[in-house]
Amino acid sequence: MIQSRLSIVPRAPDETGEPIRDAAASGPGAQPQGDRSAEVAVAALAATDRSQRLRILEALLFAASEPLDEAKLKSHIKDGDDVAALLAELQATYAPRGINLIKVAGKWCFRTAEDLGYLLERHALEERRLSRAALETLAIIAYHQPVTRAEIEEIRGVTTSKGTLDVLLETGWIRPRGRRRAPGKPVTYGTTEDFLIHFGLDGIKDLPGLAELKGAGLLDNNLPPGFAVPEPTDVAALMPDELPLDADEEEVTAELPFDEPEEGESMSEGDALPAAAGAAKPAPSTE
After folding, report:
1. Residue 144 belongs to some domain of the structure
2. Same domain? 96 vs 51
3. Residues near 158 by Cβ (< 8 Å), separated by ≥ 6?
4. Is 282 among the domain residues?
5. What does pLDDT average to in each consecutive run of 10 residues of the chain (287 residues)?
6. Are residues 247 and 168 in the same domain?
7. Distance (Å, rounded) from C-alpha 163 to C-alpha 62?
């Protein structure tokens, strides 16, 4: 009995002489195996590159001793990368964790999650509390800036000592902005970037409004008619009614609107006092 043998028979070529390919590999929507492998490799490389950029941003923010802005972060990665999108992705990644990526004063930094802050209270340094006068003065400057010392006293209804402003200046929460275009050229004050960072604000407009202050119990519900909380503004540039701190005496005098008395007339002391007190208002006429 003859044993059967197995033999491999090559497939017959088609009319063009090319070997017949598998129908699944030669269909209208099929893609060569080499091209698919290349696309997979490119996608994996892009994902790895994005992951590396996220790691770079994470390392920079973690090691920084102060919040970093997007321009500084962008200088450490490739041009054309969307830093805002990368930061948003990193922020979402850290949202459920013990530390969060937050934005304060237009800059980014890592902070302990708010719900876990109580764990670190015993490790915090005990700081000196501000007096009531200092807190009131700080609030007035934050909501009414740019504001002068005389305007602060007018709002508070009491005299503000120089020591109160000195304490706030030492904390770095307020700064001299400029000088008011008024007789005496009083210094105007405003808040600083450190103020925003300390209180966790992205901008000065994030300060609580009237409804929020009432809800927190910081304002009485029986407020006088017409009472309103001013909308705070923090413009870095000087306002039209402000002069630079280092303005020359001649320049300031030339820009101040004084009414020159006519010949034979002199301004009495009684007329000069209202003019000095009305720093933000036109001086009364001496005629």
Report:
1. yes
2. yes
3. 133
4. no
5. 55 52 50 58 63 89 90 82 88 92 90 84 66 91 92 90 89 92 91 90 87 78 79 82 77 50 43 38 40
6. yes
7. 37
List C-alpha distances in Å: 217 to 31, 115, 213, 221, 257: 68, 22, 6, 9, 45
CA 254/CA 273 separation, integer angstroms = 21
Pair 207, 201: CB distance under 8 Å: yes
Output the domain CATH number for residue 53: 1.10.10.10
Same domain, 173 and 248: yes
Question: In the numeric block, which tokens belong to residue 236?
Answer: 């870095």
Look at residues 74, 79, 46 and name the one whose alpha carbon lies nearest to residue 60.
74
Domain that holds residue 174: 132-256
Residue 111 included in any domain: yes
pTM: 0.53
Look at residue 149 and tell me if it is in a domain: yes
| Helices 33-63 & 83-94 angle (0-180, nearest 10) | 70
Number of domains in the chain: 2
Query: Rounded to whole angstroms, how far apart are CA atoms 283 and 271?
Result: 9
Place of tokens 């609107």: 257
The rounded distance, in Å, linking the Cα atoms of 33 and 242 is 72
